Amino acid sequence: MSQNLIISEETIANKIYFIRNQKVMLDRDLALLYGIETRVLKQAVKRNISRFPEDFMFELSQLEFDNLKSQFVTSSWGGTRKLPSVFTEHGVLMLSSVLNSDKAIQTNIQIMRIFSKVRQMLLDTTDLKIDILQIQKKLENHDKNIELVFSYLDELTDKKENAKPRTKIGYKK
Fold first, then answer.
1. Which residues does the UniProt record annotate as the domain KilA-N DNA-binding (predicted)?
2. Is 103 exposed, middle or buried (CB count within 10 Å of its CB: 0-12, 13-18, 19+)?
3. What contacts 150, CB < 8 A, 6 or more positions away?
4. How is 107-170 classified by DSSP, letter by letter?
5. Residues near 113 by Cβ (< 8 Å), separated by ≥ 6?
């Protein structure tokens, strides 16, 4: 990396939230990672607003913002006057074309790698869930089959207990 810029994966991963069924990052977190003020990031976005459609960036509703704030035990939000904007993975990628500094480019590369890892982790957990569901179905079938075997055994033992004595054939003494 050009300036030995290393931001830990954990730092970036902790700044990815799941809002409106999308993985997003807050404008203030991105500004912090890029080493710029939030207002500078917002100004750059406003100047290039056509690059940020609704599926790249959107503003949080008051309810979403309140829910997000309630997830933090100690609030470090300060006095924000405007609701924060959040950027999806594509929006973060688009930010690299709007913010031209080397730090922004290197930070973006790291963020994209983390987004990919998060996506892979979600896929891995989905595969695990599918495997678990298949195992549960098999176990349910095994339970039904075992019950069936026991019912057949009960029928056989009932038949054996209620059976008439058989007459023997052959030589008699």
1. 14-98
2. middle
3. none
4. HHHHHHHHHHHHHHHHHHHHHHHHHHHHHHHHHHHHHHHHHHHHHHHHHHHHHHHTPPPPPP-S
5. 9
The first and second tokens of residue 96, run together, are 């690299």
Residue 62 phi, psi (nearest 5): -60, -40
pLDDT digits (tens, 9 = 90+) for 95-138: 877 887 777 777 777 888 887 887 787 777 877 888 888 888 88
Under CATH, to which class is 9-123 assigned?
Answer: alpha beta
Nearest CA to 113 out of 41, 7, 21 is that of 7
CA–CA dist 107, 169 (Å, integer): 95
Q: In DSSP terms, which residues pair with 86 in a beta bridge? A: 26, 58
State the virtual CA torsion across 102, 87, 9, 7 in degrees, nearest 10: 30
Nearest to 33, CA basis, from 9, 53, 49 = 9
State the distance between the two ends of the chain, measured CA to CA, in whole angstroms: 104
pTM above 0.70, yes or no: no
33 near 111, Cβ under 8 Å?
yes
Domain assignments of the chain as residue spans, ordered by start: 9-123
